[in-house]
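User: My collaborator sent over this chain with a note saying "see what the structure looks like." That's all I know about it. Can you take a look?
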Amino acid sequence: MKTQSPLPSPGIQSGLTIEEIDARRKDAQDTVLPFSTEYPFASNYLKVDGGVMHYVDEGADTSGASPMLMVHGNPTWSFYYRKLVAEFSGNTRCVVPDHIGCGLSDKPQDWPYTLEKHIANLERLVLALDLRNITLCVHDWGGPIGFGFASRHPDRIKRLVISNTAAFRSLRIPLRIALCKAPGIGSFLVRRMNAFAGMATKMAVHDKQGLNEVVRRGYLTPYDSFEHRVATWQFVKDIPLHKEHPSYQTLANVETSLKQFQDLPTCIVWGERDFCFTPHFRKLWEEHFPEAEVHAIEDAGHYVLEDAGKRVIAWLHDFFDRHPVS
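Assistant: Without extra context I'll predict from the sequence alone. Here is the result:
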């Protein structure tokens, strides 16, 4: 395991006592035990709106390298970024939060779970840790959440890594996701049958045999019950397809903000076999960031880091070397 960054002072930044942190860390160790070889990271916590947010904070922030802030989507959690954390935390601070309702964070049943709320929680974390000169890495819902934060603090963002996401409005939605979004049947499929997270372990990768059992456990363990799948369902519900949707204007504002980041070094890494964020979305990102370095991976699906992790890591090493943060 890489050197862990200092824990925020209990009661000052984390909002928890040492005893509360110790208890939560013990629970986290028990939860990740079946896949601890894949996810050997210490747990950190911060009180935010909706409960306590869990986050990974690995690597010393002493090299002058830009800290990597990695923002996940649905139905993943910080586990998705484990390969990047293992690779880059040797000389770079890697911070990876679990959104409320996801991973090892609290899963309140009556919290709003809107885009605005998730953006505010990410902002709370970044400001608590005072992250600056950030390399922002986004995937899936991490796009609108990450860029939503960035739009409020553009001076803190120095490089961008974008993969299979959208931070702009679109009416394109796959039938299978539209079905999960439908009232009644959607909740049944996602929360009762685990159709969203469960099917993703096969449908989100290029190899239709799916993920191996250990990695599959890593993705699914935090979502092992009806109650624990609340965010998986709420994220689907929060896809804003019309102006009356409560998150429509928030997403519109995020979209408008993208232009202020056009001059930043940007690397787009895209799984071309993604049934949801198809190459159409990659092309839209290229319109927003015409100077971006683009890697379109023909044999990768939505979970790009599962299908092409080694290649992505090599590209990012080269990208970071060519675009150092001063």
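A starting point for your reply to your collaborator: The longest strand covers residues 157-165.
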